Amino acid sequence: MSEQRKDAAAADNAAPLSTYQEAADWINGLIPFGVRPGLERMQLLMERLDNPERRLRFIHVAGTNGKGSTCAYLTSVLIKSGYDVGTFTSPYITKFTNRFQYNGQDIPEQTLLELSNMLKPHVEDIAATELGSPTMFEVSTAIAILYFAKVTFPDYVVWETGLGGRMDVTNIVSPAISVITNVGHDHMDILGDTIEQIAWEKAGIIKPGVPVVSTATQPEVIAILKEKAAQTKSTLYLLGEQFHYESIEVQEDQQSFRFRGPFRSIDPLTISLNGPHQVANAALAVMTLEVLRQYNALLVEDDQLNDGLRSTAWPGRLEMVSQDPRILLDGAHNPEGAATLAAALKSTYSYKRAHVMMGMLENKNHTETLKHILPIADSLIVTEPDFRKKMSAESFASIVQEIAAETGSSVNLIVEPDWRAALDKLKQLIAEGDLGVVTGTLYLISDVRARLLHITDSEKGW
């Protein structure tokens, strides 16, 4: 590169971003740096910003499935109880600003622009070192910390891990409590080949002396959580040991349950999210709040708890977005997610036939996921999400055919790579009394949801 071109490039890098779209493009432009587990770049970035994360009180949430719903329950109840709450989650379903929320409202575009300009020189300085450029998720995490520590000053930050736990960049924080929903087969290309390896990564958010709450059920996972808690002298509250829940009544858009914990029992509690797994997620949130009552003198009245749980919404997860035709969205992109979808369809919904539309990314456990989907599907339309890591519809269909042959499934298989055309075909299949289900990667769910709900400013991403 000539000296003139180098100078021009340096000047371009130094120039401040002038619009929200430029800021979002700059952050998303870091996606090619990939997912690089490790905290070195994040630690350096925080040091350069005078460690703003140390001023905040975090509820750190990890797990394979249920993180987002658990975060939504916690956020809703805390807001209903009069607390100011920051929430950082991923991926986003509608718009990039969704992932940074204060009291349930997205970060203003102008604020995101200002914080991006605050970060940009530091990111470029670090990119010039041997550490390499901070990633998109690292920069997003830093924006969240700056938003909460320098702009909004919440009482609590509900803080969802991106991937794993131990080496996830959100693990830069020292939380008031750690929460682990469950451990399943996802991101095995990064986290490890076995449940034990994945569990060890998730358990990495457990910090010395900080209480931890979990709904993990597998004996091998529980053993690892207990080992890590013992090492860090952290009190562990486990579903089935220290706390329990029992379902009372189930109907569409309403479930009630009773909660029994070490400090008290609460009966009944009601949620509007569907599926048996959502009762487990709600019980996990309740136990988390109960521990914070003991350790942090958190004030939550029972009516505020019930109001918060009942009003919790979580887009893209067992969300009925259309009644005519009847279409349900659920981002089940791994075996455990597919199992919970299948269980919810059996326990909650009534229908004559189920027509499923599905698209996946290439790095997922397709075979085990499909083993839960095929038994519930009368028709299966395989398509492709609009995302760079998509699995081709033809490749996905070949796996469907293999499993169908093995299991004797007689599913009506339709291959349509264009997700818009696939959605049109799904609508045509849904007769009176039938149910349409769109599932798979959240990148597909995001696009379908925007189309069905006529959301014009939809973005999507991790």
Automatic annotation (TrEMBL):
Residue ranges constituting the Mur ligase central domain according to the UniProt record: 61-288
Family recorded in the similarity comment: Belongs to the folylpolyglutamate synthase family.
The enzyme's E.C. designation: 6.3.2.17
Statement: the UniProt record of this protein carries the keyword Metal-binding: yes
Reaction(s) this enzyme catalyzes, per UniProt: (6S)-5,6,7,8-tetrahydrofolyl-(gamma-L-Glu)(n) + L-glutamate + ATP = (6S)-5,6,7,8-tetrahydrofolyl-(gamma-L-Glu)(n+1) + ADP + phosphate + H(+)
InterPro entries named among the record's database cross-references: Folylpolyglutamate_synth, Folylpolyglutamate_synth_CS, Mur-like_cat_sf, Mur_ligase_C, Mur_ligase_C_dom_sf, Mur_ligase_cen
UniProt organism field: Paenibacillus terricola
Domain Mur ligase C-terminal: from-to ranges: 316-441
PANTHER family xrefs: DIHYDROFOLATE SYNTHETASE-RELATED, FOLYLPOLYGLUTAMATE SYNTHASE-RELATED
EC top class, as a word: ligase
Short name of one Pfam family: Mur_ligase_M
Keyword vocabulary terms for this entry: ATP-binding, Ligase, Magnesium, Metal-binding, Nucleotide-binding
SUPFAM superfamilies given in the database record: MurD-like peptide ligases, catalytic domain, MurD-like peptide ligases, peptide-binding domain
PROSITE patterns (UniProt xref): FOLYLPOLYGLU_SYNT_1 (PS01011)
Annotated protein name in UniProt: tetrahydrofolate synthase
Domain of life (superkingdom): Bacteria
